[in-house]
Amino acid sequence: MKNFFYNISSGNPKTLVMPCVASFLEGICKIVPAALVFDVFNTVYLSFANPGIPLNTGRLWRTWAMLIGWMIVQYLTSGFAYSKTFTAAYDASANGRTALAEHLRKLSLGFLGSRDPGDLTTMMLSDYASVETTISHYVPQLVSATAFPIIIFIALIFINWQMAAAMFVALPFSLIIVWLSNGLQLRLGKSHVKAKVDSASRLQEYLLGMREIKSHNLSGQRFQRLQEAFARLMRESIRIEGLIGPVMMVAIALMRSGLTLMVYAGTFLLMGGQLTLPVFLAFLLLGTRVFDPMTMVLVNYAEIRYSVLSAERIMEIRHERPLPGKDDAPAGNHIEFQNVTFAYENTNVLKNVSFSISPKSITALVGPSGSGKSTITRLMARFWDVQGGRILIDGRDIKDMDPEKLLSRVSMVFQDVYLFKDTIGNNIRVGKMNASQEEIQWAAKKACCHNFIMKLPQGYDTPVGEGGCTLSGGEKQRLSIARALLKDAPIVLLDEATASLDPENEIQVQRAINALVSNKTVVIIAHRLKTIKGADKIIVLENGKVVEQGVHEELLAKEGLYQHLWSLQQQSSGWSMKAS
Ligand SMILES: Nc1ncnc2c1ncn2[C@@H]1O[C@H](COP(=O)(O)OP(=O)(O)OP(=O)(O)O)[C@@H](O)[C@H]1O
């Protein structure tokens, strides 16, 4: 039970206290009118059954006045309960979503990569929405459905224990049916969630891959996958409703049969003179007050179970441990790989890789495609932790460092640049969130962005689409260099930074990069070897191993892999496409 409340409140059960208290107060307020109506009936019945006793009109007026007065109290308590439960629900989901997004940022990319893409989106939107409804609707219902039957049952026992027993005799059987169906509900709920996540993933894949789908004429095949995912979701939804619905109907019918039994028992007791009509009526009035909230809980039981599953999924991620480490990143920039071994899944991508990089030097990583160059730069930034060996900065293992502090000392320029759905200026500001407009323009000028930005309709205030789809590949690349210039971190990792630039811009960007890297420790990946010919050190990788290291001339003299790659590039530089 503790886990239940812990999970549905996304780890913060205190948020449930106010909705529960408010709903309890609201429920108590709803009982009072029933008692007042009972009093009216009792007063009228007293003079009706005993013609000698005059109708106590004074008492009747007082009770009517109290009923009207109580309507105001009820209105106020309902308003209070409404605002408390909804505020708590929206607070819990908004804070929960923010906390989860913050937590996801701290997890390794390895963990995030292992999740289905639609999974986290579903969690953020749908699972939190389900938790929200539970807090705003189902938890208050649960409070009413549990607390009132207990209170009323105890009260009714003192009035007439036979009637109280008749009212509640079927309840345990109804609860047993609900309890027995738990396993089935869990199983169906899990496959429903899976179908939902799968649909979200297929939809995401379909929309993001639209360019490839169109260019490769895959509309039929990819759409079929999406259609199948939706069809499965539909089947799972029908299955859950079709199987759970009838079970719950039986449980509800059994529970409500208490009312019929009570009427039956009441009639006998009334005829036998063991019960007065007002008391019989009181039982009828309270019976509906008790059974209505319990019926609502059973009607919504599948939804409650569903939100428990949602909350469990959220908590599973919230319990995922972020990358450890609390130390500051050292001021120096001597980087050392010591026998580093790393695998994304099972196959080792890096095998006993060792090398060192001097501060304020330029080191190039070279090697065939898939040899592990990008992996090395990602490990330096601690996107993943290594499985064997160590990566040291100034002699200290980066595993002991706070990942955010480490990242604050590293600038990265990737091959694939992501631009946020924001203005161009704010996209450059990502490098330094408090940068002034002058600083942004300075970085943009250095990265050869300024001219093309000024030609855009709103200059630096021009919005770019999600993923930066309104800019060319070269323009995106240059914006990313501008971000790195602005960040001005002492370690710079360039992964094919100039890959998509046209020849016209390349010279200028090379100059900008030279300004960016001066006095910095630079690690650069470049397929075009002529761009890194002057590097202080060239590390040659093959199949995840360091096979050669040295400067350009030394490596050429070795006549190994580097010399081979170099001569291949010399040959291909004269390549041109020929019509057959
Ligand atoms: N996120 C990932 N999950 C699983 N495997 C990966 C992942 N990223 C890379 N790999 C694999 O790791 C190996 C090394 O990849 P990496 O990107 O480091 O090579 P690279 O030398 O930079 O290649 P390229 O020059 O083509 O960019 C490849 O076999 C690649 O398929």
TrEMBL record:
Q: Which UniProt keywords apply?
A: ATP-binding, Membrane, Nucleotide-binding, Transmembrane, Transmembrane helix, Transport
What are the residue boundaries of the ABC transporter domain, all occurrences included? 335-568
Please indicate if the UniProt record lists RNA-binding as a keyword: no
Q: Extract one GO molecular function annotation from the record.
A: ABC-type oligopeptide transporter activity
Pfam family, any one: ABC_membrane
Q: Where in the cell is it found?
A: Cell membrane
Query: Cross-referenced SMART domains, in alphabetical order?
Result: AAA
List the record's Gene Ontology CC terms alphabetically: plasma membrane
InterPro entries referenced in this protein's UniProt entry, alphabetically:
AAA+_ATPase, ABC1_TM_dom, ABC1_TM_sf, ABC_transporter-like_ATP-bd, ABC_transporter-like_CS, P-loop_NTPase, Type_1_exporter
Residue intervals of the ABC transmembrane type-1 domain: 21-304
Enumerate the transmembrane spans. 21-41, 61-82, 138-159, 165-184, 238-255, 261-286
Q: State the annotated membrane topology for this chain.
A: Multi-pass membrane protein
* PROSITE patterns (alphabetical): ABC_TM1F, ABC_TRANSPORTER_1, ABC_TRANSPORTER_2
Mind telling me what this protein is named?
Answer: ABC transporter ATP-binding protein
